[in-house]
């Protein structure tokens, strides 16, 4: 506890800008093009429930600072959890060796004001652990009550974080911000005979405990369990090329994995993206517009400033099928001579920032989602996406279908299990035939280069006229 108190006191001192300026000047004393410091103070709570019992309650505080020097194409990064003057200056001296000469800077910091604010009605650090446990137990009981015979296991996870950050850099920018995120996830396992199926449901946003007033724990738990129970009676999925309707409620896993990562500027500049060198070219159907917007209210990937102190903004990546932009951090933006667009993100002070998505989605169109299903004729309706893999260099992907239904004569038919979707992201975007007027979001933790950051993704209902479906049955029964 003494260590935690020390961190609290040091963070408060760092609001005074004199030490920040001293650290930046030390970092650039041997030259360099740019230096910044990222100070983080994070309160975390996590609760896990399994087997009807609370198995884990943990809370803690993480605090530290990361210091970076950019010199030409080289970046030096050091971090420390010693937030005293000596600890910070020692980290600054380490990264200062990246410079190739002498550099005396006269630094004045100016505070940047956020362009977007997030209303937090019920701060999670002001909510008792007992209240959080009650929410977890409510989700667990709701899942079990769906079918007490078939539901064999329920796992509930609750988490919240209150993250305070301070960012200052050698260009004179100074940022203070606070991010509050809350999430709840439920996974239910159902079994009947030798058949075992799982169902998953989650909610999360840049908000406080009020999240669970809108997305009630009971509804999240019941939704996961109902999906698992329904899957027990599902028939094997057919295999082959067929029309596929991705429902809005399926979320944006497809756009995130098969498109979004390929639009991150570091992968583009390394030649690891199928979208490299294609700005201004048509890369999708004319009815497809892809956006990443970190300023959205009540979304899990939102923020006022990115982790480099750049104000968050809405970025149109693909507009009416034309590639318009990439997701940049400061380093990749400088390489191309463009402005960073607020997508430099990091997991914590222990990681340097890299280009990352925030809230990525395909913009809604004009088609009625019900009419989209009718126009498909026959094929597969995907209501929930599972996990998958994608090769950003080629755009090739394979995704599991967590909840899918046959479409017969334009009507939703029986549920199927074991379906996978295989294809190429850019090719799929080129053959999107209809775009619905709805929009459904899902949340997740996106992994890249050993870092995980909170994101959300979304899409409207989409009709893809021909996509390869992998299954365990050939042809429709």
TrEMBL record:
Keywords: Hydrolase, Metalloprotease, Protease. The keyword NAD does not apply. The keyword Hydrolase applies. InterPro entries: Metalloprtase-TldD/E_C (IPR045569), Metalloprtase-TldD/E_cen_dom (IPR045570), Metalloprtase-TldD/E_N (IPR002510), Peptidase_U62_metallo (IPR051463), TldD (IPR025502), TldD/PmbA_N (IPR035068), TldD/PmbA_sf (IPR036059). Residues 35-93 form the Metalloprotease TldD/E N-terminal domain. Pfam families: PmbA_TldD_1st (PF01523), PmbA_TldD_2nd (PF19290), PmbA_TldD_3rd (PF19289). Residues 240-471 form the Metalloprotease TldD/E C-terminal domain. Residues 124-232 form the Metalloprotease TldD/E central domain. GO terms for molecular function: metallopeptidase activity. GO terms for cellular component: cytosol. Transmembrane segments: none annotated. GO terms for biological process: proteolysis. Belongs to the peptidase U62 family. This is TldD protein.
């Amino acid at each position: 506890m003494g260590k935690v108190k020390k961190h609290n006191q040091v963070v408060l001192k760092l609001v005074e800008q004199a030490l920040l300026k001293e650290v930046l000047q030390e970092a650039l004393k041997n030259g360099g093009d740019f230096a910044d410091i990222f100070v983080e103070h994070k309160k975390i709570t996590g609760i896990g429930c399994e087997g009807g019992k609370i198995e884990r309650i943990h809370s803690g505080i993480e605090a530290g600072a990361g210091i970076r020097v950019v010199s030409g194409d080289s970046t030096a990064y050091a971090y420390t959890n010693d937030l005293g003057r000596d600890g910070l200056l020692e980290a600054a001296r380490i990264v200062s060796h990246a410079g190739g000469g002498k550099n005396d800077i006269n630094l004045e910091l100016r505070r940047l004001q956020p362009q977007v604010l997030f209303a937090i009605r019920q701060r999670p650090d002001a909510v008792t652990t007992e209240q959080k446990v009650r929410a977890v137990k409510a989700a667990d009981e709701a899942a079990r009550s769906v079918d007490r015979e078939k539901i064999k296991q329920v796992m509930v996870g609750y988490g919240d974080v209150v993250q305070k950050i301070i960012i200052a850099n050698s260009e004179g920018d100074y940022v203070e911000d606070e991010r509050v995120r809350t999430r709840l996830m439920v996974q239910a396992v159902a079994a009947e005979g030798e058949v075992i199926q799982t169902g998953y449901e989650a909610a999360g946003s840049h908000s406080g405990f009020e999240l669970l007033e809108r997305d009630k724990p009971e509804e999240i738990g019941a939704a996961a369990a109902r999906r698992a129970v329904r899957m027990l009676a599902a028939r094997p999925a057919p295999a082959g090329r067929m029309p596929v309707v991705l429902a809005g409620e399926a979320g944006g896993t497809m756009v995130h994995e098969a498109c979004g990562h390929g639009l991150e500027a570091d992968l583009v500049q390394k030649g690891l993206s199928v979208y490299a060198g294609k700005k201004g070219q048509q890369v999708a159907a004319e009815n497809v517009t892809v956006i990443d917007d970190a300023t959205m209210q009540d979304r899990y990937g939102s923020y006022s400033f990115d982790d480099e102190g750049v104000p968050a903004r809405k970025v149109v990546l693909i507009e009416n099928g034309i590639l318009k932009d990439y997701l940049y951090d400061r380093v990749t933006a400088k390489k191309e001579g463009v402005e960073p667009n607020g997508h430099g993100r990091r997991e914590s002070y222990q990681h340097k920032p890299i280009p990352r998505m925030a809230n990525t989605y395909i913009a809604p169109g004009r088609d009625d989602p019900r009419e989209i299903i009718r126009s498909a004729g026959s094929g597969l309706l995907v209501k929930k996406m599972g996990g998958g893999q994608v090769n950003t260099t080629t755009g090739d992907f394979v995704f599991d279908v967590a909840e899918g239904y046959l479409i017969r004569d334009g009507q939703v038919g029986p549920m199927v299990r074991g379906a996978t979707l295989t294809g190429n992201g850019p090719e799929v975007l080129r053959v999107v035939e209809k775009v619905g007027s709805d929009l459904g979001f899902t949340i997740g933790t996106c992994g890249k280069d050993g870092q995980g950051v909170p994101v959300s993704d979304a899409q409207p209902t989409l009709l893809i006229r021909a996509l390869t479906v992998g299954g365990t049955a050939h042809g429709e029964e």
